[in-house]
Amino acid sequence: MNPLTVLKIGGNVIDNPTALTRFLTLFSTLAGDRLLVHGGGKVATEVARKLGVETTMVDGRRITDKAMLDVVTMVYGGLVNKQIVSQLQVLDCNAIGLTGADAGVIKAQKRPVTTIDYGFVGDIIEIDSGRIQSFTRENMVPVFAPLTFAETGDLLNTNADTLASAIAVDMIFHNDVTLVYCFEKKGVLANPDDESSVIGQLTPAQYADHKTAGTVNKGMIPKLDNAFAALSAGVKRVIICHADEVPAALSGTAGTTLTL
Amino acid sequence: MNPLTVLKIGGNVIDNPTALTRFLTLFSTLAGDRLLVHGGGKVATEVARKLGVETTMVDGRRITDKAMLDVVTMVYGGLVNKQIVSQLQVLDCNAIGLTGADAGVIKAQKRPVTTIDYGFVGDIIEIDSGRIQSFTRENMVPVFAPLTFAETGDLLNTNADTLASAIAVDMIFHNDVTLVYCFEKKGVLANPDDESSVIGQLTPAQYADHKTAGTVNKGMIPKLDNAFAALSAGVKRVIICHADEVPAALSGTAGTTLTL
Fold it and tell me: CATH homologous superfamily of domain B3-258?
């Protein structure tokens, strides 16, 4: 099957215009079919503050009331997404910005209220992988904002790591998929204080050991859980690397490659 | 050739959630290929005010400095566009939200500074009508925000009436095109104070007479200029009607139809 690379960039890259341009320049040179999933960054929090909308985080997740949903729709779906798309267009990369609502590609349901009411937060229930493939087949490069939609017509805020993993998993019916989580570190580190201690290959057993030892910290755990879940579900390769080292990581000389 | 209906809705519909839902419900039931161009509405002005960005209008056009460009990118490209798309999805209309940057469909250039510097305002230079047709052919309904992009990578604010007219004109190479401007009046009125005085058919000579008589007011002139220009350029039908009367206007029993 045709290879497809699914890349995810997070807030640390988005918040730094120089780092973002550097990443997008690398992204535009990658060979073959690819798509990008981006997170939010601090702009949403800043816009919310100026608009008088209070930001509440629980366990690193944003509580999304109606006012905050409007803010993330503006910032993720409008500002961040369209700035990435227009930068990529100038780099001769035919990007098309999408939320889950566009062409109905990613349906979700509002997360049920248990002990915490996350508000307008979506858990993915269906991805139209055929439609996504039709974009790549027609030489477009989908750029996803972390927004899905429910059959009620509500847009829903969805974690970008989870979204990238879910898209990668659904695309295995059409492509040999590589999933790359790009962030501000050089990979999974054996010693969190030493950027040169990148673990080249990580198995589930080693991951368990690192969790026990406390080497893998809180923010990395949901990322690695998503990453190993994608690998178990049939994604061919999962890589965690620095946003500046994507080509090297894809050729196996940088970052952390997960193995089963 | 296959018929295509290009509809434009403006701020008055967008600012009124009930009117917008009523329009989108009608829009979703229209037969055949169609696409929607939406304007901005007062939300952008309101968001700008809360963010401390000053709104300057000259001759009814917004002056778009960098801060205002970010606001319209958020509001037009994010909030308004995605709310329309998600409402249409629920109505079983497979909408896809687009700015000119997405898939590179509408290139523009920053308007040259003469006596007035409009800032980040775009004059359209190229429309990829083949790409737009490929969306409709794959059963998607493009929903355009009034944003284009320049080869510098800048998004540009573009008047929605002009955008709708330009798209309609470029689509004549692929479709028999009908262009419909929907607004809050029942059509072009012979007497501006009398909603029952709709002019059923309007020729350029009659338009000239109404301008001389002052019956056609300031805001209507650029709209009608765009409309007649589209007709002269090969658009089959141009209609101006109330947003609630689109089906009747398309069947010839409401609104104003322009003729040459």
Answer: Acetylglutamate kinase-like (3.40.1160.10)
So what's the ipTM on this one?
A: 0.95
Cβ within 8 Å, pair B89-A101? yes
Mean pLDDT of A111-136: 94
Known binding residue A131? Answer is no
Q: Which CATH architecture has domain A2-258?
A: 3-Layer(aba) Sandwich (3.40)
- For residue B157, say whether it is annotated as part of any ligand binding site: yes
User: What number is the average pLDDT over the span A30-49?
Assistant: 93
A152 or B57, greater pLDDT: A152
- Residue B140 with chain A: CB contacts under 8 Å: 103
A53 touches chain B (CB under 8 A): no
* pLDDT tens readout for residues A83-92: 999 999 999 9
CB contact under 8 Å between B85 and A70, yes or no, is no
Top residue of B25, B47, B79 to mutate, by most chain A CBs within 10 Å, is B79
Contact A91, A34 (CB under 8 A): no
Res B81: pLDDT: 98
Does residue A78 sit in helix, strand or coil?
helix
- How far is residue A79 from each of residues A72, A118, B39, B52, measured CA to CA in Å? 10, 24, 17, 17
Contacts of B244 (CB under 8 A, 6+ apart): B19, B22, B23, B26
Domain boundaries, chain B: 3-258
Strand partners, A244: none
